[in-house]
């Protein structure tokens, strides 16, 4: 009976958890006990701590909490006695995967495993020293999580008492994480990753680099992103831990034009979103008939986009900010124009980069100066191309912002030059352009510029006038038509007061049947009229004194025509002092025009005339001779008789002081 009682007590003692004489001697054993209890559904386990563990727990109860967390307990409550007896009164498991990690490599591996499994929530249980390190350096913690593939979460719970990190509603990515220590390194790494087609990446910056790129409202960062064709709106940044993250679940982080090119070059077109696929098909069709040198194709694409796109800013959609709206809808803002140019040139193998900054040319102080354009590599040098500004509202195409060098880029834009290529075209070649440009100071320079343009069969030119010459252009005389005429061209003129610029379009040569010139004297204008014989029209610009002479009552233009030996219709412009002779024809054979001062001179001319051919003589008389004729018109017959004329019809013009002897019959 007594033996049976002793055996029963011994068996009962065996089944009391951890109720051995020495108690539990390590936290690892406590962890196993709690983990087994959770696995078995036991919510009230009990056990006895050894003396050393009991002393540690009395000094710091968090050691017990940490151990419980490593066993999988989100929370735990207990009672205990001085003899080391511990009874659990409440225990709650994590309810999601948890990982014990001793170092950063194990932490990284655990996060990657959660990404592979697509877990929405999980718990990390770093060793206390690792936990302290992570909480002290949150940037490093964020970088490790990103590198492991954890992009974001709705909530992060962290507990110092249990050294645990819990992440709820997790999202994942496949991004690359880089640590950079300078702007140059950030720029080169961003371009390297973008060029490799990486879909997502993040950068952990040191404090100096962060302060540099984020200064002036992130201006330097924006320029750096643009130079790598990376969309700034795809960036999330964390100022307190100096991390930049480029990721977008729905759209590539690059400008769509660049993203399409990357997909096309790597054979991944099928991975593109539907709108990008459609844009690629349309873009391929647009450039399918464009051939030639890089210079010829780059210019053809510039012109094509100017004709295809209408400038529009639409805050209700993002399509106008990229090549999608520009190509599919034919509507875009400057971002869309630039992205479309990058895409079309890229499809033809022409290197293009995006560039942005602030425009120096804005119509009002309230206008947003932010602007984007392109850089294109031709003949080993990068050149600026601004398709937006070259697309005139009236449907015309300008080339002032095509093939721009450093000088014009700095005139047009304010931007971060650090991120521009080193091998830039230094000086814009004004004349060697689709539309030549000339800086002129006088009329001779204008004539030379327009003459050069016509000789090269180009139909448009831009003239940049100095202040004095532009004032002449704006004067009431408006000599621009004179400049065109004297250059031997026709054209239409528009101007910009702000830039003292004339745009001459529709330039065509006047042709050999139109003679132009300027005259300061009667001999000048008569010489020009003589040179116009056989031409259709003569345009002569008279000096102020000569034009005043033309307007006098004696109307000398007919005299000038007579002495030049031509006939024609006369028109004039007081504003420009231009006399135009049209319907020009020779006076005909047998007509002689002379100037006479006396009756004796008239008689000598008559006697010396070729009687076989002369049938009409026009005598332009001196005032005294014409006065003598007017006082006694019968005198003309004695003069004619003495000169050998038997008969003639006499007419005269008092206004011009000329006597016409017509249908002359000579004496035998």
Which features characterize this protein?
alpha+beta; 26% strand; rod-shaped; 668 residues; 6 domains; four-stranded mixed sheet
What does this structure look like?
This protein has six domains: about 20-95, 2-Layer Sandwich (top7, de novo designed protein), CATH 3.30.1710; about 100-170; about 175-245; about 255-420, C8orf32 fold (Roll); about 435-585, no CATH class; about 590-665, Translation Initiation Factor IF3 (2-Layer Sandwich), CATH 3.30.110. Helices cover about 40% and strands about 25% of the residues. The chain is built from 26 helices and 31 strands. Strands 4-5-8-7 form a four-stranded mixed β-sheet, sandwiched between helices. A four-stranded mixed β-sheet has the order 10-11-13-12, sandwiched between helices. α5 (about 105-115) links the parallel β4 (about 100) and β5 (about 120-125). It is rod-shaped. It starts with a helix and ends with a strand. Residues about 1-20 have low confidence and may be disordered.
Query: What is the top-level CATH class of the largest domain?
Result: Alpha Beta
Beta-strand percent range = 25-35%
User: Measured on Cα atoms, how large is the radius of gyration?
Assistant: 48 Å
In angstroms, what separates the terminal alpha carbons?
Answer: 190 Å
Oligomeric category: single chain
Which structural class best describes the helix and strand composition?
Answer: alpha+beta
């Amino acid at each position: 009976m007594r033996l049976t009682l002793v055996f029963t007590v011994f068996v009962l003692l065996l089944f009391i958890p951890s109720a051995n004489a020495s108690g539990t001697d390590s936290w690892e054993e406590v962890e196993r006990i709690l983990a087994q209890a959770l696995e078995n559904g036991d919510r009230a386990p009990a056990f006895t701590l050894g003396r050393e563990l009991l002393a540690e727990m009395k000094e710091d109860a968090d050691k017990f909490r940490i151990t419980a967390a490593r066993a999988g307990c989100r929370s735990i409550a207990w009672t205990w006695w001085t003899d080391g007896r511990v009874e659990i009164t409440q225990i709650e498991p994590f309810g999601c995967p948890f990982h014990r990690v001793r170092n950063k490599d194990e932490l990284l591996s655990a996060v990657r495993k959660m990404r592979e499994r697509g877990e929405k929530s999980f718990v990390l249980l770093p060793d206390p020293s690792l936990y302290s390190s992570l909480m002290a350096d949150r940037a490093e913690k964020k970088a490790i999580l990103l590198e492991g593939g954890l992009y974001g979460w709705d909530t992060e719970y962290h507990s110092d008492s249990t050294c645990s990190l819990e992440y709820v509603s997790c999202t994942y990515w496949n991004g690359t994480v880089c640590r950079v220590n300078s702007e140059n390194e950030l720029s080169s790494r961003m371009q390297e990753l973008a060029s490799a087609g990486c879909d997502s990446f993040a950068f952990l910056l040191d404090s100096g680099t962060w302060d540099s790129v984020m200064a002036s409202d992130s201006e330097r960062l924006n320029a750096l992103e643009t130079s790598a064709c990376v969309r700034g709106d795809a960036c999330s940044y964390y100022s307190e831990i100096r991390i930049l993250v480029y990721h977008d679940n729905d759209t590539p982080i690059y400008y769509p034009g660049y993203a399409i090119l990357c997909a096309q070059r790597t054979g991944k077109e099928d991975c593109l979103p539907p709108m990008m696929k459609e844009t690629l098909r349309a873009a391929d069709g647009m450039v399918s008939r464009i051939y030639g040198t890089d210079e010829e194709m780059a210019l053809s694409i510039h012109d094509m986009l100017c004709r295809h796109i209408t400038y529009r800013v639409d805050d209700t959609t993002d399509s106008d900010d990229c090549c999608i709206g520009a190509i599919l809808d034919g509507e875009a803002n400057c971002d869309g124009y630039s992205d479309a140019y990058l895409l079309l040139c890229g499809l033809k193998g022409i290197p293009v980069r995006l560039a942005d900054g602030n425009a120096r040319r804005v119509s009002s102080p309230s206008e947003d100066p932010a602007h984007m354009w392109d850089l294109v590599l031709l003949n080993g040098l990068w050149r600026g191309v601004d398709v937006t500004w070259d697309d005139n509202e009236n449907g015309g195409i300008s080339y002032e912002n095509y093939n721009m060098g450093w000088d014009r880029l700095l005139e047009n834009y304010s931007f971060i030059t650090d991120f521009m290529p080193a091998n830039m075209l230094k000086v814009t070649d004004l004349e060697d352009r689709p539309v030549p440009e000339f800086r002129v100071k006088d009329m001779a320079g204008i004539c030379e510029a327009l003459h050069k343009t016509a000789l090269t069969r180009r139909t448009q030119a831009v003239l940049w006038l100095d202040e004095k010459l532009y004032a002449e252009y704006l004067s009431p005389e408006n000599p621009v038509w004179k400049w065109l005429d004297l250059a031997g061209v026709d054209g239409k003129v528009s101007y910009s007061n702000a830039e003292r610029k004339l745009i001459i379009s529709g330039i065509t040569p006047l042709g050999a049947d139109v003679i132009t010139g300027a005259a300061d004297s009667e001999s000048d204008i008569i010489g020009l009229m003589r040179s116009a014989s056989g031409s259709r029209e003569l345009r002569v610009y008279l000096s102020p004194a000569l034009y005043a002479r033309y307007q006098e009552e004696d109307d000398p233009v007919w005299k000038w025509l007579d002495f030049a030996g031509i006939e024609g219709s006369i028109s004039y412009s007081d504003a420009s002092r231009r006399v135009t002779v049209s319907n020009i024809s020779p006076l005909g054979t047998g007509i002689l025009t002379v100037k006479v001062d006396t009756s004796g001179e008239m008689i000598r001319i008559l006697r010396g005339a070729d009687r076989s051919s002369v049938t009409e003589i026009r005598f332009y008389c001196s005032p005294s001779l014409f006065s003598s004729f007017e006082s006694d018109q019968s005198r003309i017959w004695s003069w004619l008789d003495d000169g050998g004329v038997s008969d003639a019809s006499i007419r005269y013009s008092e206004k011009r002081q000329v006597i016409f002897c017509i249908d002359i019959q000579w004496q035998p």
